[in-house]
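Note to self: keep these together.
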Amino acid sequence: MNIAQHLAATLKKLRQERAWSLSKLAEETGVSKAMLGQIERNESSPTVATLWKIATGLNVPFSVFITPPEAGGEQAFDPQQQAMVVTPVFPWDAELGFDHFSITLAPGAISESTPHEKGVIEHVVVISGQLDMCVQGEWRQLAAGEGLRFAGDLAHAYRNSSDQTAHFHSLIHYPKEKAAGRPAANHDNEP
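Structure:
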């Protein structure tokens, strides 16, 4: 099963486990019912930002959607050759409560992220190139070897204002409720 098929099947399974209609899923995620239906039928690939909204609305780790259980080789999420490519380094670890991703951002690309659920902490470390990070409206430029830790439940964005691809790692630490496999109790910051 490839990533697109896995993503479609996982979304449908998670929705059905909750006994949610597509309308309820749209309400919880802020993603249109039509788009969610297309994703479930594997007719459309969501952008990274859209997939984050879905993961946050369902209160599941992002890597659940992009790491098929039988994944043997490198699995990159590159929807429709988008400017941001996400590859799991270490997929969701329930015991430690984190996802760890290797991400590339094309020159001139920007990715805006809606706030994740309350209590999420994100750690970003630039591997090569430079990355502009915006947290709560304040931009900060990071060079290779530099990092930033911030509350992921705040609006944030990634931007590559250079002419070279930026490569960075993102370690996302989820609150204890998710780490224990239970839904987080507070959803105040969901989109």
